[in-house]
């Protein structure tokens, strides 16, 4: 009931405003781009008289095939606008420096709600993706909202990427039913999957290098530091460097993974993954957050990498000591 009431409030605000600005998080992934673009496309179809914009200050080379967001608006354009932020847990992660200038702010997100924000906040941290929430929003109000192939493609892109192709623990029967609904709009999965999953030969060489140089702690934590030297050797973008985490996940007996990625400003991006054992508390200790099994943080002291590895290893040890049934 509360979910429906919150969605109704969001729809009422959308109907009330002539100008709606949609944004997402920094270093956008498929869900961030899919949810922001999908919502914008849906609202343009449903309310052609309204001015609907996607406004972000960060882009994705990996997802460039989905097209550009559009020209940036002047700050003065925000004063009479409703802003909707998708797939973004905290204010400091929003890829729009004018977020405080909008008349009202709505948060739509599926991460753990550590730092709430927004005049209206719709958060469902059990969902596979924010795109799943956007699809639920459509299905709840499809007497008002419209969907087409382009809109469905954006939303399906985020659904399939954030659910790990429907393999991650947050995938439910509803996730799959929503995927089927979107496919019925004619999503070209052959082209979409080719853009998402075919890799350049150089990236495959990087993957082989990762498998040779990753480290495993005594208790079963896998980790890798993608330093600037490694990034230069393989001519990696930040997105490609961050993808190293996905190469560490399939080692039997290793239930937690950490990838450290050097950033241009001297800080270190941390991506954490786990199975069976939750790992979000480790990310939160270092100022990060996300989901129970998929999260991240940013380190400003390189010494914290060693501390995080040691603490993660102890977490794995404790879990294995006190639990049965993991592989």
Task: Please explain how this structure is put together.
It contains 11 helices and 11 strands. The chain has 327 residues and is of the alpha/beta class. The protein folds into 2 domains: 2-196, Alpha-Beta Complex (inorganic pyrophosphatase (n-terminal core)), CATH 3.90.1640.10; 201-322, Diaminopimelate Epimerase, Chain A, domain 1 (Roll). The strands form 2 sheets. The protein has a 6-stranded mixed β-sheet. A 5-stranded parallel β-sheet has the order 2-1-3-4-5. α2 (30-46) links the parallel β1 (19-23) and β2 (51-54). The protein is globular and about 60 Å long.
What is this structure's SSE topology?
Blueprint lengths: L1 H15 L2 E5 L6 H17 L4 E4 L27 E5 L17 E6 L10 E4 L6 H11 L8 H14 L10 H11 L5 H9 L3 H13 L1 E2 L4 E6 L1 H6 L4 H5 L13 E7 L5 E7 L5 H6 L3 E2 L3 E6 L3 H20 L5
Helix pairs in contact: 2-3, 2-4, 3-4, 4-5
